[in-house]
Amino acid sequence: MSRFLIRRLLSSLPVMVGILLITFVIIRGIRGDPCRAILGERATQESCERFNERNGLNKSVPEQFAIYVGRFVTGDLGDSFRLGKPVTEILAERLPVTAELALSALVFATLFGVPLGIISAYRHNSTVDVGTMLGANIGISMPVFWLGLMLSYLFAVILKDTPFVLPPSGRLSPGMNPAPYYEVWGWVKDGEVAPQLWVFLGRFTIANGLITGNWPLFWDAVRHIILPAVTVSTIPLAIIARMTRSSLLEALNQDYVRTARAKGLSERRVVFQHAFRNALLPVVTIIGLSFGLLFSGAVLTETVFSLTGVGRTLFEAITARDYNVVQAVTIVSAFAFVLINLAVDLVYGLLDPRIRLN
Amino acid sequence: MPPLTSPLRDTIRRILHNRSAVIGLIMISILILVALLADVIATHPPNQSMLDVPGEAVPGVRLPTKPPCIGLLGCPDPQHFMGLDLNGRDVFSRIVHGTRVSLLVGVSVVAFSVTVGTLIGLVAGFFGGWVDDLLMRSMDVLLAFPSLLLAIAIVTAAGPGLQNALLAIGIVSLPIYARLTRASVLSAKEMEYVIAGRAIGAGPLRLMFLNILPNVLTPLIVQATLGIGTAVIETAGLSFLGLGQQPPDPEWGQMLSESRAYVFTAPHMVFFPGIAITFCVLGFNLLGDGLRDALDPRLRGVT
């Protein structure tokens, strides 16, 4: 098992290096240099030269790449030109926002998509089925950013005086103190700087509120994530529901299902233990593939809901020619994609004993 | 004797018997009509500001907050069917004119990516070996990036604007068509009719385009129809981020981008362009699904 994991991670290395190399070249091919994008259009030749020298941009691209990879191995991702901070610090702050958004959306999409798909398949051509499929069709036809805007109008303005009111933007309400666990538990004294990994983990606000028992924080964080998560999840939800339905429909028509029914098994056992288990493989694949969609959706959704996650950061970094940030975010998202696919393969092994991981 | 049916007539009959294909066709026909007759249907020139029209603007009243006046709901003055936008332009007229842009966007993006993607897949599948490896691995690299982000990078590299946005989305959607064609070519290549063609001395071009291509068209047509919807939605996304159509010409995504800051005060400016996008994309998605069921029973139910 661990040998399989190690081999898979190692075999993804060439892809990661390829992605890094391509991002490296593409971003440098973008018209307009970072100096002018950051110091302004009227920056003098001299100040640009100094800027380029400070950031190592006066060297040739292969040289820059060699230096970058050399530092990358030691965990140094360089500094952001625009924000003047180490990229690792920016990632530690912002990656958790996107990760929480993506995970909540994935959970939401799975929790609703799979049962809807099951009911639609089981009650084939019923009202629920037709309604779900129509809803799924509309869901994948809607621009996510528009849905986000409409949901925030609905929940922040129309439902203003009802208990259903939800905040339309931001990660936390103003004045909410997101005291991270390491401060609550006294691991870090006042004035000390916490290790970046701790900061990173502490930024998962919902989990942080949960483990420190800070219920107002937890509840506030959950309320703020609902609208963006629902927004990002529409397309994956629709796709998961459709895939579950078609895959289960196929399974329900198999001979072994007829045999199971003939044996007198309860409908529940026929559907869940015989058909559904076999129908799950494509569903799991599609859930894994949805991750790419979630990330694309995150850029637009974070823009709509004013969240400072990596999606929005990446968009801003591309337009500002902030090379180091673009490279870091791309490589992190590629790595996340590799991990998710690895998890999908592991789940395959659990679902279908015929699949041997080695 | 049963009436004689040609394969073409049979196909058309199957399409017309498919509920979602018919609904999709009707929706697309409406859009095409609106695009063709935009000048007749629109009540105002799309870029004309009512601020310039005497008797229209009320002094001291901010125009965007003017609520939509819907004639059907008993509004006495249905002139501005969907209200006015930030610059006092008629939203309905802008949406009507935006239809042209969106249809053009969808069709031209798909025309580009189908042509180039099919060519890549055809060559890769037909020749195999290192040609296949080279072409398909570069397609894999394109697939490895989240599509919207790659499109953002390409547009930033080429400069914002509708044409560059189209190019970006065209490039991003290449891999689907290349993979689809290659997969079909691989199986078609081993068929007797191709081997027969080879035996009578047909050259690679003849084999590829006259013998193989017609037989891999069905999945391509289905995918291309679905691809138009995707292209429309992705262009709207790029425009929303300010990378697509530049003001003042109307485009649905760009209308959303302009008005999103006013969603709490003047939601009608956000509501209608989004409905237009959804309607258009839904039309193509329904047609694509219907075509898939009607043309290729083997693909039925695959999402």
Arithmetic mean pLDDT of chain A:
84
Low-confidence stretches of chain A: none
Structural class of chain A: mainly alpha
- DSSP helix count of chain B? 13
Q: Please state the second-level CATH architecture of chain A.
A: Orthogonal Bundle
Order of helices and strands of chain A: HHHHHHHHHHHHHHHH
Average predicted local confidence, pLDDT of chain B: 80
- In the CATH hierarchy, what is the superfamily of chain B? MetI-like
The total tally of domains of chain A equals: 1
Briefly, what is this?
The complex is a heterodimer of chains A (358) and B (303). With 358 residues, chain A is mostly helical.
Topology of helices and strands:
The complex is a heterodimer of chains A (358) and B (303).
Chain A: H1 2-11, H2 13-29, H3 34-39, H4 45-54, H5 61-73, H6 87-122, H7 127-141, H8 144-158, H9 181-184, H10 196-202, H11 205-211, H12 215-252, H13 255-262, H14 267-304, H15 310-319, H16 323-351
Helix pairs in contact in A: 2-16, 6-7, 6-10, 6-12, 6-14, 6-16, 7-12, 8-12, 8-14, 11-12, 12-14, 13-14, 14-15, 14-16, 15-16
Chain B: H1 7-16, H2 19-36, H3 38-41, H4 91-127, H5 129-144, H6 147-158, H7 162-172, H8 174-188, H9 192-199, H10 204-212, H11 217-240, H12 252-259, H13 268-295
Helix pairs in contact in B: 2-4, 2-13, 4-5, 4-7, 4-8, 4-11, 4-13, 5-8, 6-7, 7-11, 8-11, 9-10, 11-12, 11-13, 12-13
